[in-house]
Amino acid sequence: MFERLCGCCSRSASSKRRLRANDRIFNSQFKYAGNYIKTSKYNVITFIPQNLFEQFQRIANFYFLVLMILQFIPQISSISWYSTAIPLFIVLSFSAVKDGYDDLQRHISDRNVNCRKSFVVQNGHLNEEEWAKVRVGDVIRMMSNQFVAADLLLLSTSEPHGICYIETKELDGETNLKTRGAVAETAEMGDNLDAISKFDGEIICEAPNNRLDKFNGKLLWQGRELPINNDNILLRGCILRNTRWCYGLVIFAGKDTKLMMNSGKSKFKRTSLDRFLNILIMGIVLFLIAMCLICTILCGVWEWTTGRWFTIYLPWDDIVPNRQQHGSQQIAVISFLMFFSYVILLNTVVPISLYVSVEIIRFIHSLWINYDQEMYYENGENSVPARAHTTTLNEELGQVQYVFSDKTGTLTRNIMTFNKCTINGICYGDIIDARGEIVEITPKTKSVDFSWNSYYEPTFMFYDQKLLDDTRKGVPEVTEFWRLLALCHTVMPEQDKGRLVYQAQSPDEAALTSAARNFGYVFRGRTPQSITIEVMGKQEVYELLCILDFNNDRKRMSVITRSPQGKIRLYCKGADMMIMQRLKSSTSPLLISSTNTHLAEFANIGLRTLCLAYKDIEPAYFEDWINRQHEAAVDMYNREKKLEAVYEEMERDMTLIGGTAIEDKLQDGVPEAIARLAEANIKIWVLTGDKTETAINIAYSCRLLTDDMKEIVVIDGQTHSEVEVQLKDTKTTFDRIMNHQSPMTPAEKPRFEIETIHDDGHECRSMDIKQSLLSSEGDGGVALVINGDSLSFALDERLERLFLEIATMCMAVICCRVTPLQKAQVVDLVKRNKKAVTLSIGDGANDVSMIKTAHIGVGISGQEGMQAVLASDYSIGQFRYLERLLLVHGRWSYFRMAKFLRYFFYKNFAFTLTNFWYSFFCGYSAQTVFDAVFIACYNLFFTALPVLAMGALDQDVDDTYSLRYPKLYLPGQFNLFFNMRIFIYSVLHGMFSSLVIFFIPYGTLLNGAAYNGKDLDGYSTLAFTTFTALIVVVTGQIAFDTVYWTAINHFVIWGSLIFYFLLAILIYEALPLTLLAKTSSAVSYGVVFKTMSTPQFWFSILMVTVILLLPVLLNRFFWFDTHPSFADRLRVRKKLSKKIPMPKEQEEMPAFKRSAATRRSVRGSLRSGYAFSHSQGFGELILKGKLFKNVEQLRAKHNGY
C-alpha cells in the first residue's frame, strides 16, 4: 500500500542505518540522501520531452499528431498540414505554459525551503549552512520557534535534564506542546561546542520508514551501548518551542525523513470527464474508420464501374503503379490511398479545437474561483483569496461524493475557551433575563468586567455575572472549584515581557487555568515540591505531595497537596463517567442528578466537559499509601498495573464539586456548510490525529453526528481478531437498522424532479439517486468511529472490503489517531473501490499525503505551514468556503462543461457528416462540400465564441439558489448531464441534422434555375447554401441551449452569424478576383448575391431551419410545461418574484440533543462530552523536576512572584 501511495521503495525490515557523528567521510560511503528537497516534476532539460510525453498520453493529442504526419503526404492529403499543426501547437503550448507555471511555483517553494539557514557544528565553531547542504551525521544547532531541518537525535538542550518542547502541528495536526528528551549521557555536553564537535558517537538504527510514532536504535559511544527511542527524536516539520536552543545529530535527511516519506508522490490527475472523453474519442475514431472504409469500398466500386473509363478527364495520381492498365491492382491502390484521404477529410468529427476550447473554458472557470469575493477570507494581514492551483479539475468539483477532512485547523480553530460550568448543582454561564429566559450571547453582549484583577487577560470573555459574585462572596463550593482548577494541572508559568504567561501541554488545561486566573485564583509558580497560587490577591503555597497522572485509560488526573493549614487534600478532574463512579456513597442524589443534567446539556451543544471532585486525606493513611505508591513506581515488571491499583484506591469516596464546559471553537460556518454538503449527498469522513473523545465532540459540534442517527459505533479493537469481530457485529447491526426502517407513507414520498434531466424528450432517473435521497431523508442513518490501531487492521487486505462496505453505509465516518499515511490509505481505499469522486481537505503537512491521493486536494491557507496548500489543487481560507467551491463553482463548471460537450459534438457531427453524404455524389473522391476557407473558419470563428461563451457563463440557477437548494448538486454525482446516452443522442442529432442540411438544399437546387434561366445546381451554389444552412441551424441551436443570457452571449452568437455573411460577401463579392485566382474559392466567386437572389436559397434555409429547430423548440416547451425540472421551477419562481421559503438548513437550528445510542463495540456504552487533549507523562516530569530551568532558584524564589 505504501509503495502504491507514495511511490517509495521501502527497504527490507532487516536493513539498518549506520552513521557516525561529525564524520562526513565515514558517512559518505553509504550514499545516504542529502537534505535537498524536490517536489517539482521538471527541470530545464526534461521539461519539453517529459511534458510532451504526458500530453501525448491523452489519446486525442496522439491522434492529431498521427493525423498531422499523414497530412505531410501529398498523395493522400486533402487538407493542408498546417490546419492541424497550428491548432495542435496551440493546445500543446497552452498546456505546457500552464504546467510550467505550476511547476515553477513548486520550484520556488522548494528553493525557499532548501535555502533556510541552519547552524552546523564544525571544528568547535558554528557554520551557517543552507538546509540543502546539511548531511547525515552533521550536528546542528536550532533556536526557539525554528522548524526542525531533518530527523535528529536530540543531544543537548538549554533546559534541565535535556528536555525540549516541540509542536507537531505539521505532522499530526495537534498544537499542544510535546516533550522530547536527550540521552542523559549526551545531555551533559550542554552548549559546549568543543565537546559537541568532538562527539563521535555511532548510531545504528532502523532504515528510513514512515512510522511517526516509533523509532528503534542505539548509540555506541565511549564503550557504552545506549538505547534510543522515539522520545529522543526530533522529526522534520516540528517546531521548537519554549526552548532557547538545542543540538541534534542528523539521522535521516531529505527524502528519507519521516515527513517526506508520508507526503506521497505528486500524481498527474485527470477528471472522470477526461477519462470518459478518451473512451468517446476511441469510439469516434472507430466510427471514423468505419465511414472511411465505407467510402474506400465505394470508391473502389465506383472506379471499377465508372472512373476507370474517364481517366482522360480525371487522371489517376502518378503514385499509382501502371496506371494505364486500369486494372483491379491500380484501383486497390487508389482505394487504399483514398482511405487516408477520407481520414483527413472527416477528422473534424473530433476537432483539435475541442481541446483548445476545453482548456480555455477550464481556465476561465479557474478565474471565477480566484476572483470570487464571496470566498475571500478577511483576516487582517493574513487575508487570503481562494485559489485554483490547477485548471484541469474544475468540473470534477461538481461531482464529489466523498469529502475527507482533517479536524484541527480545518474544522476547528483549536482555540479553547471556558464557556460554562456547574458548581454544587448550580449552572453558570447563561444570561437570564427578567422573564427567566436565556438570552442569546452575541458579539454585542457585554461581558463580565475583570479589570479589578491585575492578572486578568483582556481576551478572556465570560458573560454570567452571578459566578463572579459568588466567587467574591466566598461561597465554599465555588472557592473549592477555582482552587482545584488552579492546582490540578501540569501547566508551566513563565514571564514574558513582564507578563505572566502559561505554557500548557494541552489547550484544555490552558483554558481552565486561564479561567481560574481571571476569576482571581492565579497560578503563580511551581517547583517539583510546591505550587504557588494567589487567591484574591493573597498568596498561598501548597506542598505538592503527588501527581496521579493522566492516561487514556484512566481518563482523569489528580494532585495531592498539603495546604498552608496542613490539610492534605486530593483534587481530581476527569471524565464524568470516571468521577461519578468514585464519589462517596453519602453524596446527595439530587446533586449527582443536577450535575449530570448540566453536563449532558453542555455536551448536547458540543462543549467539552470535565467533572471535578476532591477528597480529604488523613496524614497516617497518606504516609502508608505513598510508600505503596513508591513501591509500585519502581517495580520493573508490573509497574503500570500496580500504579493503576494504587491510584484506584486513592481516587475513591470523593466529594463532587461540579463540572466545566470548554468550547473548542469551530471555524465560522462549519455546521452550516456540513449540513448543506450532507443534503447534497456528499459524505464527510473526518480523518484526524486527535483522540477519539475529542473527535466525537467536534463531530457533534459541527453536526456531523446528530441525535437523529440510529447508531454510532466505535471500533477500538487492539488485535486483528477483535477488529474482525467488531466489524462483523457492526455490519449485522447496520443491516438490521437499514432493513427495519419504517416504510414511507405516500405523503412522505420524496420527489425526484431534482435529478430528472429533460433533454429533448429524454428523461433520466437514477435508482442510485433515489436510494441516496431515501437514505438522506428520514432518520439520519448510522455513523462509525474507528481509531488508528484498529484502522491498521481494518485496512488489511482481508478486512478492507468489509470495512469499506460498513463505512459507505454511514452518513459520517470518523477515523481518530491516524497517521498521515493511514489518511492516504483510507482515501485510496474509497478511490479504488467506489466509482465516486473523492476530495481531501486539510491544512497541515500531515494532510499532504491524502491531499495528493484524492481526486481533488484542497488546502486551507492562512494557517501556519503551507505544505498542504502547496500540494493542493485548490486552496481556500476556511472550511466554510468548501460549500461554495462545490455547490456553486463545481456545479456550474460541470453543468457548463456538460452543455459545452453536448453541443460541440452535435455541431461537429452536423458539419463533418455533410461531407460524408456529399461523397455519394462526387465519385468518392474526398472532395469537400464546403469551401476550404469556411472549413478553416467553422471551428475557429463561426462557432467557437458562442460555445465558449456558453461554457464560461451559462448557469441554470444563480449562486444563491445553488446554495439554498443543495440537491441541485445531485446530477453531477451521477453524471446525468453528460453520459453515454446523452453523447449518443448528440451524435444522432448531429447525424440527422447533417442529412437535412445536405439533402434539402441538394433537392431544392437539383435541376433548379434562376429567374434568368441559369442553372442553380452548380457546386458553388450548393456549397454556399449548405454551409449557410449549417451556420443558421447551429447558431439557432446554441441560442436554444443558452439559459443565462448576457450581453456577451448576444454579441458572440448574433455577431458570429453576421460575421459569416460579411466574410462570405468579402471573399466572394468584394475582393478582386486576382487575389482568389489561385485558391479553391475562385470557383465560387460571385456566388453570394447570385444565390441569395433566388427563392430556392431562402426556401432551403427556411425548410432546414423549420425541420431542425422547430421540433426542438416544441419539445422543450412540452417538457417544460408538463415535467419541469427542479432548476426550471426555481427559475420560474425567481422570474415571478415569488417569496422563497427559508430552507431547513437556514432556519435557526435548535440545540440538538445527544441521546443517540453511541455504542463502543465490546466495551459497552460511551456517553460523555469529555475530551481532554492531554498526554501521559507530564506529571512524572514535574515531580522529577525535569520541566524546570533552575530548580534551586525556583525553590528559593517562588514566593517572590
Descriptive report:
The structure is a single chain. By secondary structure, the protein is α+β, with helices and mostly antiparallel strands. It has 6 domains: 37-117; 134-263, Calcium-transporting ATPase, cytoplasmic transduction domain A (Distorted Sandwich), CATH 2.70.150.10; 271-350, no CATH class; 365-410 and 668-737 and 780-887, Rossmann fold (3-Layer(aba) Sandwich), CATH 3.40.50; 415-666, Calcium-transporting ATPase, cytoplasmic domain N; 893-933 and 944-1123, no CATH class. It has 42 helices and 39 strands. The strands form 8 sheets. An 11-stranded mixed beta sheet has the order 14-37-36-35-15-29-34-33-30-38-39, with helices on both faces. A hairpin with a 2-residue loop joins strand 16 and strand 17. Helix 3 (47-55) crosses helix 5 (82-114) and helix 22 crosses helix 24 (788-794).
